[in-house]
Amino acid sequence: MRTGFKVLGLVGMLAAGPGTYAETPPTIHTTTATAKETKDLVKVIGKVVDAAKNTPASFATVALLRTDSTAVSGVMADENGVFSIPEVPPGNYILRITTVGYDTRFVSNVSIATEAGTTDLGVIGLTASAQELSEVVVRGEKTMIVNDIDKKIVNVGKDLLATSNNVSELLEKVPSVSLDENGNPMLRGKGNVVVLIDGKPSSLYGNDLPTVLQSFPAELIERIDVMTTPSAKYEGEGASGVIDIITRKSRIKGTNGNLRGTLGNNWNNNGSGYINHKEGKWGLRASGSAQQRKWFFRRTLQRENYLGETTTRLDQNGNGQDGNTSLFGRLGVNYDFDEQNSLGVVVNYSQDQNHNRNFYHNETRLPNGELIQQFDRLSNGNSRGNNVNANLDYRHLFSDKDHVFTFTANYSEGQSNGSSEFDQQSDWDELDLRQQSLRQNNRQALFLNADYTWPITPKATLEVGARSRLNSSTTNNAFYTYIPDTDTFVINPNASNEFGYSDASYNGYVTFTQKTGDWGIRGGLRVTDATQHINQISRQQSFKAHFLYLVPTLALSRKLDDETLVKLNYSRRVQRPQADRLNPFTDISDPRNIQSGNPNLTPEYTHKAELGYSSYKDKGGWGPSMFVDYSNNAITRIRTIDEEGIAYSRFDNVGREMAYGFETDFSRQISEKIKVNATGRIFRSEVVSEIANIDNQTWSYSGNLNAFMQLPFNVRASAYLNYDGPRAIAQGTRQGTFIANMGLRKDVLERRGTVSFNVQDIFLSRIYQSELRTDTYLQNSLWQRTNRFVGLTFQYKFGKISASGDNDA
């Protein structure tokens, strides 16, 4: 713990830059001009009118931008078209004015002088748009996909939001991203993805990632950054890469908000809302959501067992349902001490309740069809959990552009508990049994992070940072068996355990970026010192593992023109085993398929390289790339079988995995009414282990399509198609999966309201299948969600932004 604070202290001293605070007090502001005292700030005023009619353009949005187009401040004109932007530092700016029915107006070379006191821009005329309102909306939205030197940025616009209620549904529409049957994100069809929220680990919001993503409202998201070869600034873990989910931050003075409600079939309903208020130095934001979900599924499994004197065949056919109710709330306050320093505090709270019901019919037969075993198994489970975290962010801006120091502290804690009942019945009396299980979990986490960015020259930038993360959890699993003679449930010590886990990781990184002409290079190195403690409390066994590893990264780029870039990236990744995979607890909820953890797992090391090209013009472009991923000591699930046909599975370090191939994203405004974003990939996947006698290889292809079309009556249609092709896994092949969604939306109430209709999994094609083949058994399994989602959503934006900047919002 002390080591982490020493590292953070060092970064704090580095933040002083070449000098020290004692020698030269920093002068900081949010513009490119030299910072001044508050008394030197200038008020910018003006009036917006219809250029043809000379009538006021009431409630037009007026934004003040830096010369690099980043936002500084903004207000809404009053009903007379008059606007007033207070406290503007001297400098050169661009003024952007937007409102319904008019072309966006840019006023360049807005020069603000110190001695002016008030700068009057006079009357500014707007030209009425000759196109449909909906077409103006399409043109005004950000480009959906932006390729940066080491990441892919996906901006979340109205089209994505119209068919997405939560972050989980958003991620499905992001290029290169898909979800497995449990709702965990995958990159290029592979798991082990680090998911961040505003640069912080998603585990701070709860211990179950799918639940966190399903609880987070989609309208809070501004963009999603996808990094398959992340720089050293990001976590070294995540063999497949990093997904950073960036939430919206209001920079405009005044009050605004959003309310959203969805009614869906099969009790799939949700409601959410947020409100932002910024006045003077203070900013306040609050949001909340409530969701109710229910889905049904079916599952089949066929397994031929070649052990023993004769072959046997197990057939499992089952169905079930899962239900979830969740609440999410967020409250944040930020304060600008001056032009140099700002502080933000955010508290998040989430709560969820889950219910599941599963039924399985099991038959075991000989090759001649003779039935040798049969039973039905019914399970009912309930669980409840909550999580709270408090986050503090401090930001210090220096006099040079992009010269910044940030510090973050986050503490979270959560609890969950659950119970399940199992009732197994058979014509064979010895197979009749009843069981119960109880589970409790308590967890705490502390996260500290400091980053310092120093633009040494206009073309050279140094970044250094340090991070400490401390986690601890205790899980108690108790499994009981019913004894008919005494009419009591007796604990089964072989299937019960109390498991304690803690880990501490201390990280430091440095990156250096240099631009020379059209060339750019970014090199980085991250060092991680991590310790994991595993405590089998009930068995009085403990394990300790220490890791020290380096994560080098390199990115080279060359601009062929303003819109075209060629880049070469390399990153090393380290995947430490997760707590649930280390826990040796034996899960016997399905007596024919028993699972357990492995406390002897060691890290998986992955090398990732990409060569990419991107060219995006006004109406679209494309970004092809070639990639190769090589993992040594790969962590994967291994399944063995005994002579009675019972399967035992756990995670092991099996050998090496490799994937290489070609991927491209494509974006095109085909016409004024049709826009398409697509991603395609063809690749080869290999899993090889001499020790486990594994050698699986396959070629495959994947792709997704987001298409948007303008229909009559200002209705906007969207369609989403995704296909994840087959992939080699340790003992066989995971089959391909196809998903199709569609949606319609229409702006109403002068664009303050939006009505949308969407259907998910139109063809009920979300089917996950796998085949496992070894010398001792052959297994085919299937899992399918059997209900499509149909929902109707209404969203309303509200708020009148103050034109004066006073407290009369």
TrEMBL record:
Domain Outer membrane protein beta-barrel, first and last residues per copy: 396-796
Membrane topology according to the record: Multi-pass membrane protein
Disordered as annotated region, ranges: 582-602
UniProt signal peptide: 1-22
Segments of skewed composition (Polar residues): 592-602
Compartment(s) where it occurs, according to its Swiss-Prot or TrEMBL record: Cell outer membrane
Boundaries of every TonB-dependent receptor plug domain copy: 163-242
Entry keywords, A to Z: Cell outer membrane, Membrane, Receptor, Signal, Transmembrane, Transmembrane beta strand, Transport
GO CC entries: cell outer membrane
Gene3D superfamilies per record: Carboxypeptidase-like, regulatory domain, TonB-dependent receptor, beta-barrel domain, TonB-dependent receptor, plug domain
InterPro entries: Beta-barrel_TonB_sf (IPR036942), CarboxyPept-like_regulatory (IPR008969), OMP_b-brl_3 (IPR041700), Plug_dom (IPR012910), Plug_dom_sf (IPR037066), TonB-dep_rcpt-like (IPR039426)
Pfam families in the cross-refs: CarboxypepD_reg (PF13620), OMP_b-brl_3 (PF14905), Plug (PF07715)
Primary site of residence: membrane
Protein family: Belongs to the TonB-dependent receptor family.
Protein name per its UniProtKB record: Outer membrane receptor protein involved in Fe transport
